[in-house]
């Protein structure tokens, strides 16, 4: 019987090394998860002012993505990742010394510009360095590294914040520098995969290498189809904590335990799941993942018991594990090779936009209308994405 993790042996060494660098970087990611708390406790900001800090970071991420993508195509994805990691590390040490709230808000924008440049470059690197038959597995491996790091960083950040908040900036900066120097020391090189003669990627587009994302109708349609389901995924950092703690009366520790279900499933299952689905057509996987997200979030309109909450989290986590790697793979398939960084930049914009809009709208709906309309609305948004993803089948012809 085939081992569920056997597909990893087909992942090129350079993608493993990139994933290792991402693990190092994410193990120290603790400033962003605690940035609102830092603004309130250390800079004496009001909760609304602290919210502005996060919003400004989101704006910086949104603006940066397409420019970083284009820069990745010109400079090279490896060079841009190295620059982003090293400068972010240096910046974080200086960032910790700011005591003026308004200067801190301004620098939060700069923080996003520098650090978020890494994302489209890394996605472009993965897209170019593996064939389409294993690209979903490669994206899943990279997400595994990120989630492993994220399972450590915020926990350690919570401990360090009890000692001295500045330690979060120092540790985060140190791991960013370490990840950047790791890539530089390895002299990581992009080794684009050349498709074998006679091999055909049935989902790839035969499009001009000069076509921009805005003229690629399939790409624009996909982005519009993706945003509704991304908006509901980001409720887990917005309305979901309020729903669990304030409405259902669960403790914060119980909420943390429930959300750990998401991380554990991703670490244990995402790579073998995507490797087993590597031959699925994109439209089929994306439609299934979107439907599972709709079902998982929609269930919370009717349930209050902890076992059923775990079931709902499990269902939408499977949706997340399918949608995210498949979406990256699909964009790689329909983008010209020499403009993949640019396409990945605009693809990342969908995540940044949803990160900004999702929690904002979700919290507003929860506050004014209640949880039932919120979760039913999430079910509707997920169905919209699922139905739109089904249309990708006809667009592949």
Give a short summary of the structure.
With 397 residues, the chain is mostly helical. It is built from 17 helices and no strands.
Tag the structure with descriptive keywords.
globular; 397 residues; 17 helices; 75% helix; Growth Hormone, Chain: A; 2 domains
Structure description:
The chain is mainly alpha-helical and 397 residues long. It folds into two domains: 10-192, MFS general substrate transporter like domains (Growth Hormone, Chain: A, Up-down Bundle), CATH 1.20.1250.20; 210-397, Growth Hormone, Chain: A, CATH 1.20.1250. It contains 17 helices and no strands. The protein has helices at 13-27, 31-41, 47-75, 77-95, 101-115, 118-128, 135-150, 153-163, 166-186, 217-233, 239-247, 252-276, 282-298, 306-334, 340-368, 371-390, 392-395. It is globular and about 50 Å long. It starts with 12 loop residues before the first helix and ends with a helix. Residues 196-200 have low confidence and may be disordered.
Layout of SSEs?
Elements: H1 13-27, H2 31-41, H3 47-75, H4 77-95, H5 101-115, H6 118-128, H7 135-150, H8 153-163, H9 166-186, H10 217-233, H11 239-247, H12 252-276, H13 282-298, H14 306-334, H15 340-368, H16 371-390, H17 392-395
Helix pairs in contact: 1-7, 1-9, 2-3, 3-4, 3-5, 3-6, 3-15, 4-5, 4-6, 4-9, 6-15, 7-12, 7-14, 10-14, 10-15, 10-16, 12-14, 13-14, 13-16, 15-16
CATH-derived architecture of the largest domain = Up-down Bundle
CATH class of the largest domain: Mainly Alpha
When the domains are counted, the total is 2
**How confident is the prediction overall: mean pLDDT?**
87
Give the count of helical stretches: 17
């Amino acid at each position: 019987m085939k081992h569920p993790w056997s597909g990893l042996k087909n992942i090129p060494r350079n993608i493993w090394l990139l994933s290792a660098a991402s693990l190092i970087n994410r193990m120290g990611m603790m400033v962003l998860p605690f940035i609102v708390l830092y603004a309130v406790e250390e800079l004496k900001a009001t909760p609304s002012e602290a919210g502005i800090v996060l919003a400004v970071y989101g704006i910086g991420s949104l603006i940066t993505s397409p420019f970083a993508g284009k820069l990745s195509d010109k400079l090279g994805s490896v060079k841009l990742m190295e620059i982003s990691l090293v400068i972010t590390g240096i910046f974080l040490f200086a960032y910790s010394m700011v005591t003026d709230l308004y200067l801190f808000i301004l620098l939060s924008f700069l923080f996003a510009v520098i650090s978020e440049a890494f994302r489209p470059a890394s996605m472009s690197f993965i897209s170019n360095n593996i064939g389409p038959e294993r690209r979903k597995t490669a994206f899943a491996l990279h997400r595994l590294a990120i989630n492993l790091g994220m399972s450590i960083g915020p926990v350690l950040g919570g401990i360090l914040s009890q000692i001295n908040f500045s330690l979060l900036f120092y540790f985060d900066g140190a791991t960013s520098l370490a990840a950047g120097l790791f890539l530089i020391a390895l002299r990581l090189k992009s080794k684009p995969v050349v498709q074998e003669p006679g091999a055909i990627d049935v989902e790839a587009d035969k499009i001009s290498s000069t076509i921009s994302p805005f003229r690629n109708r399939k790409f624009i349609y996909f982005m519009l189809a993706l945003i509704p389901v991304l908006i509901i995924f980001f409720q887990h950092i917005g309305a979901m904590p309020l729903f669990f703690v304030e409405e259902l009366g669960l403790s914060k520790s119980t909420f943390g335990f429930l959300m750990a279900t998401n991380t554990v499933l991703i670490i244990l299952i995402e790579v073998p799941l995507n490797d087993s689905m590597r031959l699925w057509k994109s439209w089929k996987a994306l439609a299934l993942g979107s439907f599972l997200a709709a079902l998982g979030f929609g269930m919370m309109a009717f349930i209050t018991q902890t076992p059923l909450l775990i079931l709902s989290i499990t269902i939408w986590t499977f949706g997340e594990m399918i949608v995210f790697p498949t979406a990256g793979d699909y964009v790689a398939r329909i983008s010209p090779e020499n403009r993949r960084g640019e396409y990945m930049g605009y693809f990342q914009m969908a995540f940044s936009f949803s990160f900004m809009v999702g929690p904002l709208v979700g919290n507003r709906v929860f506050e004014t209308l209640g949880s039932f309309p919120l979760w039913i609305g999430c079910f509707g948004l997920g169905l919209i994405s699922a139905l739109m993803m089904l249309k990708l089948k006809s667009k592949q012809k």
